[in-house]
Amino acid sequence: MKTPFSDTTIDTATHNLALAEVRDLQRTVVVLRGELEAIGHKHSRELQEAVASAHNDLQQARATVTSLRDTLELARADKETAVKDAIASGQAEILQLRETITTLRDALEFAKADKADCMQQSASAHRDEMAQLHDTIRALRDELEARHAALHS
Predict the structure, then answer these.
(1) Cα separation values, 113 from 56, 83, 101, 126, 128, Å
(2) Worst-scoring range by mean pLDDT, 63-72, 97-106, 144-153?
(3) Cα(71)–Cα(130) distance, integer angstroms
(4) Binning pLDDT at 50, 70 and 90, where does residue 131 land?
(5) Distance between CA 68 and CA 61 in Å, rounded?
(6) Buried b vs exposed e over 39-69: b needs ≥16 C-beta within 10 Å?
(7) DSSP assignment of 60-87, as one string?
(8) Which long-range contacts (CB under 8 A, 24 or more apart) does 71-79 make?
(9) pLDDT grade, residue 12 (50/70/90)?
(10) At the N or C end, where does the chain have fewer CB atoms within 10 A?
(11) Where are the alpha helices (H) located in the chain, listed in sequence order?
């Protein structure tokens, strides 16, 4: 039979056992809470480090992009300058060639005119000489005919 005292003992023993188990569970909760907080802090620190590293990488990437953009713009400006210089040089050479052509054309026209004058003077001198030779031939023929007539008369 059950006595009221024996149920209390069991209840007290069960109660003590339950209290001990609750204390063990509470200690386990405290330990697990500490570990969870430590893991949370660790993850938070790792997250902050990852964010800082990503920020640094982003800053480096931006600096690289800026540097490459500047280099590209300088190269483009150098190319434009080289093209402008080449165009200016080509235009100067074209102008010089045009001036040379004009000078040579003027010299050729002068030479043609000079040659035409020389030819005209030569032709005129030739005509004058021919006229003088014809006059001399006539005078000599007239003299020869006069001598011949004087001899036959």
Answers:
(1) 84, 44, 18, 19, 22
(2) 144-153
(3) 86
(4) very high
(5) 10
(6) eeeeeeeeeeeeeeeeeeeeeeeeeeeeeee
(7) HHHHHHHHHHHHHHHHHHHHHHHHHHHH
(8) none
(9) confident
(10) N
(11) 4-152
